[in-house]
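Supplementary notes for students who missed Thursday's class. We covered one full example, reproduced here. Read the sequence, then the structure, then the short commentary at the end.
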Amino acid sequence: QVRLVESGGGLVQAGGSLRLSCAAQGIIFRIDAMGWYRQAPGSQRELVAVISSGDSTKYADSVKGRFTISRDNAKNTVYLQMKSLKPEDTAVYYCNADSLGVGSWGQGTQVTVSS
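Structure (token representation):
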């Protein structure tokens, strides 16, 4: 089973930047799509960005042009570069990875954007 370890969250002022990382650990044969989701208090978890094994990307409309997802297959790691952060980006960010049809979630990392 793949274990996902996230890092990089924190407190930042509006307009600032943060970079999230998520490393897949364990016995890994292949990782297909990897992505980031977020969940704000009182809201459902929503897709932020996803990247395929072939580096195709998809973003939520609310983050297009501000966030960039990338991956390093040699390190089994996915990144989320976040710029021009807004208070409405405040949420717990979760990493997700699909390995041979089985999805795994990270424990979540808090991102707080102050106005």
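Commentary. The chain has a mean pLDDT of 95. The two ends are 40 Å apart (CA to CA). If anything here is unclear, bring it to office hours.
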